Amino acid sequence: MESPINTFVETQEAPCRANCSENLSAVEDAIYVIGGKWKLKIIIVLQELGNVRFNELQRMISGISAKVLSNELKDLELNGFVKRVVHAEQTPVVVEYISTDYSRTLKTVIMSLSEWGRKHKNNIREDVF
């Protein structure tokens, strides 16, 4: 005969596993869209500065090549995080990038990551020194 505790654990385990699986899937989706070395950096710069031209964006994000920046911007645009604005009436033609309202839904996530990063850096410093 099975004990009541084992039965309780088994009945509670299935929903927990399903919830865990859902959470893992959701995080995988998020990381797929905004993961990598550059995407969040690009989003942060655009949120902080507003309309930014390509060369200014490249200067703000040290170490990123023009080719990689171009590819990342295209990917972010396809996913609705960045809007590319072309001012064809100007000579030469001016292209600016801006963050979208959808991109700004990441603001609390970015702020939480930033705060965690500061705390982590302080913890490492305290442990090392």
Automatic annotation (TrEMBL):
SUPFAM superfamilies: Winged helix' DNA-binding domain. Residues 20-125 form the HTH hxlR-type domain. Keywords: DNA-binding, Transcription, Transcription regulation. Gene3D superfamilies: Winged helix-like DNA-binding domain superfamily/Winged helix DNA-binding domain. It holds the Pfam family HxlR. PANTHER family: TRANSCRIPTIONAL REGULATOR, MARR FAMILY. This is Helix-turn-helix domain-containing protein. It comes from Chryseobacterium camelliae. The lineage of its organism: Bacteria, Pseudomonadati, Bacteroidota, Flavobacteriia, Flavobacteriales.
